[in-house]
Design goal:
Length: about 350
Amino acid sequence: MELAEMQEVASMMGMPSFAARQLMEWVYVRRVRSIADMTNISVKHRNLLMQHYEVGVYDPVEAVHSLDGTIKYLFKIAEGQYVEAVYIPDADRATLCVSSQVGCKMHCAFCMTGRQGFGAHLTAADILNQFYAIPESQSLTNVVMMGMGEPLDNTDEVLKALRLLTDTKLLAWSPRRITLSTVGVKGNLQRFIEECDCHLAISLHAPTPVLRAELMPAERIYSITDIVKLLKRYDFAGQRRLSFEYILFEGLNDTLADARKLVHLLDGLQCRINLIRFHAIPGSSLDGVPMERMVAFRDYLTRHGFFTTIRASRGEDIYAACGMLSTQKLKEQRNNNN
């Protein structure tokens, strides 16, 4: 709940007007898990609140540890519905990769979440719970909305979660510590840019609309050329960062000619490019490329004025790396057990 909603609760419970702020502090600053622990709320009002509400924090049902220190957490959202979040420690950084949906509607050819299909939208509470409920919560330095689902297909709940996360009187996260990744749901992309100050990453993966449509069916609705035109209307030269994510596939988008087309597509944008190694998924005919080719691709883009990095791969051994999150098999297994 945001403050206006909490004020309605306080009013309905017959509590004084200042109680809404107290409730917000207990939930978001002190992070209590039980209304019973809200000691500056009267016993009468605590009991009344507990008849109608709960704090809403729930623990992950499973944690899988990678050899590289990455941890994949599993959360049960509803009966038969599960979602994954990934904790990635790296020197002085600790990043949480957060999900926004059970499954995904976008059906990208290289992504296991897309193959799972769409299951459910997460509420703002489900999104924030991934941040709250893991043991490493207090040590997190960065959050990326890059887990299961397309965040801008669930815009209202995602923006609500981000508002609460960045509220200076509550969790007080800097928007510069948060990145949202999207295929570019055009109308909702504009809304995100104008309503939120968090970093933006566009899932690109091809230098031309034709090839992108082969890999990402969403291109047929949300054209990358239209998305680039939209992005050029905004200023990304300051602290807010715009980046493009690009997985290299053998024989598809990995030549210097492809890099040249990419330079042409993004010309005039203040942005960076993140190159990502393809993580093989079952049943896919796509192949990754050797590191030497990724380096050559990076160096070409760098020479042509784009700050380009090769993203380190983490958690591949536990299916926690980019494009590998899926709870479909788990759902089927647990349904069979029942």
